[in-house]
Amino acid sequence: MTQHPQHSRLLELPVVAVFDFDGTLTHRDSFLPFLRFLLGPSRFDGGLLLMSPVLIGYALKLIANWQAKEALLKFFLGGKSQKQLNQIGEQFAVQQIPKLLRPEGIQRLQWHQNQGHLTILVSASLEIYLFPWTKKMSFNQVIGTRLETDSGVVTGRILGKNCYGSEKVERLKAILGNLNQYCIYAYGDSRGDRQLLDIANYPYYRTFETI
Fold first, then answer.
1. What H or E segment, with its residue span, contains residue 48?
2. CB-facing half-sphere around the CA of 133: CA atoms within 13 A
3. Cβ(124)–Cβ(104) under 8 Å?
4. Which residues of 3-33 are buried (b: 16+ CB within 10 A; e: fewer)?
5. Model confidence at 136: pLDDT above 90
6. What SS3 class is residue 205?
7. Is residue 2 pLDDT above 90, yes or no?
8. How many helices (H) and strands (E) does the chain have?
């Protein structure tokens, strides 16, 4: 059987596997568990109550994703030491992230790594806990949402853009350059991953196909 020219070309390209984090490699969101880990249950629950108008506005699509996230960041993290948050992020990566993981997602990641593929995590989650976790998991690159700091203190604002939607693709291009030079596998689970899945040669939405 003659191979399709497009398929033959893909076989010659370096392979990149791009993973979303929340809901793809994990079975739930990681941002709120991180805040709870940082603050403790009582302060976290009280803070959520005070921020409920923002959360309701986001749920009703009256407030944009990045605006709701930045409001929570300012409320919960604004004024905290960057050094302290980095330490908490490392502790969260070791103690809590393993409890959130989907075994089938980690198996897929390890399959790509065993094939020698470049593996990249692209997530709207915070880099302060993604960095230590991805280092442990041997990812080649991690792209996440960054926190703005001023003299070692977190302002609560997002540095640049929230790594969501089209920003995921733009950040991926910043690392890889021309995406047509790669055979891309992409894994996602939400509307925030749509643009990422659109540029993939092999998109996987809420599934890990048996290999």
1. helix 41-50
2. 30
3. no
4. eeeeeeebeeeebbbbbbbbbbbbeeebbeb
5. yes
6. strand
7. no
8. 11, 6
Instruction: Please indicate whether residue 27 or residue 5 has the higher confidence score (pLDDT).
Output: 27
Instruction: Indicate the length of the chain as a whole number.
Output: 211
One-letter amino acid at 51 equals M
The stretch 163-182 carries a mean pLDDT of 96
Assess whether pLDDT exceeds 70 at residue 133: yes
**What global pTM score does this model have?**
0.92
- Retrieve residue 162's tokens: 């929230």
What does residue 79 show for φ and ψ, rounded to 5 degrees?
Answer: 90, -5
Instruction: Mean pLDDT check: name the lowest of 84-88, 178-182, 205-209.
Output: 205-209
d(CA 199, CA 181): 12
Tell me: pLDDT of 193 over 50.
yes
Distance set, CA 207 to CA 4, 6, 58, 146, 186 (Å): 26, 24, 27, 28, 11
How far from 211 is each of 4, 67, 108, 112, CA to CA, in Å? 21, 39, 9, 10
